Queue: 2 jobs
Job 1
Amino acid sequence: MSSTDYSTTDHSRGRCFRGDMRNCCGGHWSGANILAMVAGFIIFAPLGFIVLVWTMLGRPIQEFPGWLREKWAGFSGGRTAWRYSDSENSVFNEYQQTQHDRIREIREEIRHRAEAFRQFRADARRRKERQEFEDFMASRKNNGHGES
């Protein structure tokens, strides 16, 4: 019996060869990412390559618009289209920027919590599967069908 644990998320083990294509090559190979990539190649080939790189970096496609908006805001000097108004009152502008920064931090915290919960669920599934397997093996030994 082998003691190799294939459930680990270690990148050095070559998940692609174990059939876990969703995490192959460290990317985020979800259905939404693949669909966005195919649509990107159909619409405009460079867009498809951008989505391919984004996917290979391990980022879900749902984060791409927000990342693009942040980069555009940095490029355009912080002036974005989604900002409602730029008043002449500098204190109000600072307050508004503080609120936007706070919202960005909350979104990042939610994203981190969601990732932690996904990991927790994966670990819980693994523990449940291990318990089921151990129960199965124990029942085989009890029935006289031990390992040969």
Job 2
Amino acid sequence: MSALEQEIIDKIRKLDANQQKQILQHIESIKPKEFDADEWFRQVEEFRSALRGKYGIGHVNAQGLLDELREEASWPRE
């Protein structure tokens, strides 16, 4: 535990019960949400659909660029 963490804990312990409860409620409200893979995939698909709608299915994508680079790198060099 870092010195800062210990200092925060010490200061919280000096507060009365109601103040401690308020601090804990505040901490609960700002803690990051757990990662939701289903929601992330839904957002990715939504973004992908928006790109396909704007540019069409045959537009250049990251995988296509990587494939091109691999193909170019595999050619014999003189």
